[in-house]
Amino acid sequence: MKTLIIGMGNIDIMHGWAFAEAGIDVSHKVRRGKRDIYKDGTVLDILDLRKGYPRTRQALYVPKIVDEVSPSDEYDLVIMPTKHYQATEAVGEIKGTVPEARFLMFCANWEGPDEIDAILPRSRYVWGYAAVNGGILDNVLYANVRDDYRIGMMDGSDRTFLDGIIDLFGKAGFRADFKENMIEWLWVHHGTNGALIGTALFAGGLAEFLESLENGSIVDLFVNASKEALKVLEARGFDVRRYPDTNIFLNLAPDAIAKIYIDMFRSPAGRRTIAAGHYRGNIAEMKRYYTDVLEKGIELGIEMPSMPSMRERIERIA
Hints:
four-stranded mixed sheet, 46% helix, 12 strands
């Protein structure tokens, strides 16, 4: 399956590297005139959780880069790991140059698929979400390569196409974490992430958030903000109890919830996330997760004392 990944962000690079290493024909599309920026490649410092791969290593990924695409390139698959609020524009820009290709929307979603439906039939796209994470520090991409990714069916999806994506990712050592209702899961993930990211921004960063969890000063704010996010999700019409992501906030005491997150950020992958994660270099996108959830709650009339209390400080962050 000839594959085109849109962009050279962290998620793009990690999957492009894994695909290329597995012998998959993969290229990256960058803006016109930007090809030379990437000609020397990217150094990756890898923590690899895929089965059968070395757990730690360094690699140099020198990708195939294109800044123009035409129908004669005959791409089979276009992967869109874009910011969720830029996804529709990105699809609109590329779809005319890849008339036979299908799309993997590999990004968050908070408002539903209507805008994508307006420009692509569902037979031509499915929605997924990456599990790998990492960020660049001192010109090195610190990559936490998990062995899974999220993907699911939607009404109108082509199962044969979805199975082809699962096979492609499988060749690179990734397993599908299949979601029965992908858009609903994306909303749950977005909601819980919005509360987590908002509280971390309020604390001053992930390291400060971890310290505040450990000393107990931010535990109640974090837990209450997360529960408010669940109320927003419930008001959108579905049962949040169906999702393991929400169970800790529904069933555990605040101290037990804090311990789960302390252990997560104290793990090898968590320490790397704090030091060089996506959070550090994409503050505008991180703020958007928080404001999406907050503004939807206000729109729906949800009582939310904790989420709005963080807004003034978060809005001041550059």
